[in-house]
Amino acid sequence: MTLRQLATFATVARLGSVKAAARELGVSEPAVSAAVGVLRRELGDDLYHRAGNALVLTAQGERLASLAVDIGALEGRARTTLDAQAPVDRLLHIAVTATVEEHVVGPLLGAFTERTPDVHATVEVEPAARFADLLDHRRADITLGPRPSLAQAPDLVATPFLRHRLVIVAPPSHRLAAREDIAPSELAAERWLVGAEGAGIHSPTAQYFSRARIDPPDVRAFQSDAAALSAVAAGEGLMLALWHATTVELRSRSVVRLSVRGTPVVELWYASTLPEGHCLTGASALRRFAGTPEATQAIAAPRRGVPATLVRAPVHATLWHSVSRG
Fold first, then answer.
1. Using CA atoms, how far apart are residues 161 and 84, in angstroms rounded to an integer?
2. Using CA atoms, how far apart are residues 318 and 113, in angstroms rounded to an integer?
3. Position 311 in a domain
4. Domains: count for the chain
5. 186, 176 in Cβ contact below 8 A?
């Protein structure tokens, strides 16, 4: 077996599709099938089988996929170490929550690629409940958002990178806008608006409802936090929002913060990877960078944006790459 065959199989296992692997690797589907076929014959195992539209790894296939990623990471580190003069592109697969994708990924990767111009990354939105599984099965190199479940993957390295505050915002004309020390129960019958994370059981809004012991009957979802915030300004309801992402609207008083008991809600986001030696060098570098003051300053900067040349957007993911220099 060769490094190329192993890398091809690892890509098929990660993407769950021969077609998607061929597209990412820039080769034909028959070439991918041929590389996997060699491994199947050499190891005497099918490595994966189809179950409907899903690709399911055999036990041997799971072991090979894990080893192939480790070998690929070692090869990348060897090339970087032995040929320091040559730029090495490192493709990172980053899984984030919808809120992190909307408010954090842009400025964070913009600042990171200024330091590390050889990094390329795909960014995919996933539920936080899947983070541990994605890392453990190497479907993601790093996750950004809530801490993955330690019960599912106790060996993960999770570095806190942003302590953020959630506040309840309302239109300025709201009946409780001038009140202090509002009981959460007074908001139980209100219409609530949520962004892309919705109000599923693991979403910040659902967790707030649970802690506050309220069960609003009218919760409406929007495609983004920005769209939900605009609807709040238009008088359509309340929203649990990131404080630092609403500073412009609060200062202009297009929305107001309600003084609700128990708010602001303070939470932490983490950059999480497999342990050192088992994760890509670029993933551990991004995990460490995310916790630096430079990263925090970039994230907190109000809507600074990033150069358009940093991003290309396929259908289901965001692809980041460095700006060419010179």
1. 29
2. 15
3. no
4. 2
5. yes
Q: pLDDT truncated to tens, each residue of the chain (326 aa)?
A: 788 888 888 888 877 788 888 887 888 888 888 888 888 888 888 888 877 766 788 888 888 887 877 777 666 656 555 554 444 445 789 999 989 988 888 889 888 988 877 777 888 888 888 999 999 888 899 999 999 987 777 889 999 998 989 999 999 999 999 999 999 999 999 999 998 787 777 888 999 999 999 999 999 988 888 889 999 999 999 999 989 888 889 999 999 999 999 999 999 999 999 988 888 888 999 999 999 989 888 887 754 444 444 443 333 344 444 333 33
Q: How far apart are CA 144 and CA 14, in angstroms?
A: 18
In this structure, what CATH number is given to the domain that contains residue 67? 1.10.10.10
- CA dist., res. 307 & res. 72, Å (int): 30
Q: Which of 24, 7, 132 is nearest to 68 (CA)?
A: 7
Q: Percentage helix, strand, coil, to 5, in the chain?
A: 40, 20, 35
| Domain range enclosing 194 | 163-267
Tell me whether residue 272 is in a domain: no
From 58, 68, 200, 70, select the one nearest 130 (Cα to Cα). 200
Secondary structure E strands in 171-293: 191-194, 218-221, 239-242, 256-257, 265-273
Contact 246, 263 (CB under 8 A): no
Backbone dihedral angles phi then psi of residue 32, each to the nearest 5 degrees: -65, -45
DSSP H or E stretch at residue 142: strand 142-145
